Amino acid sequence: MANQKVPADKDKEKEKKEKESEVARLNRLLGEVMRYLSDDEQEEIDIEYLLENTDGLKEWWDQYRELDRKRVEEQIKNSLGDLPIEDLELILEQIRNKVD
């Protein structure tokens, strides 16, 4: 009975393995990007090439940008009260032009 794991322990172990897997994936992505950037023969950095030719990088970047979008939205909301009416009107005009 002492050797049997309770479901909570299995969940924690599964979560730990998933985190380790994610860390390994991010290490691989970072390694591939750094290898590309440190290539002495590379004269120009081509981000699109990196995104299209590094397995999983584009998906990670899209997820990261979406999470960052929420941070930016929150930052904008929090700063609106400090802006003068002229700036708010300019922002509103930009939004209306974007929607049209």
What does this protein look like?
This protein has 100 residues and is an all-alpha fold. It contains 4 helices and no strands. The longest helix is centred in the N-terminal third of the chain and has 31 residues, at 7-37. It is flat. The mean pLDDT is 90.
Summarize the entry for a quick read.
This protein has helices spanning 7-37, 47-53, 57-79, 85-99.
Spans of at least 5 consecutive residues whose pLDDT stays below 50 are: none
Strand content: under 5%
Gyration radius (Cα, Å) is 22 Å
Our count of helices gives 4
For the report, how would you describe the main beta sheet?
A: none
Count of distinct strands: 0
Average pLDDT, to the nearest integer? 90
Helix/strand/pairing category: mainly alpha
- Helix coverage percent: over 70%
Overall outline: flat
Report how far apart the termini are: 67 Å
Oligomer: single chain
Elements, N to C (H/E): HHHH
List the topology elements.
Layout: H1 7-37, H2 47-53, H3 57-79, H4 85-99
Key attributes of the depicted protein:
flat, mainly alpha, 100 residues
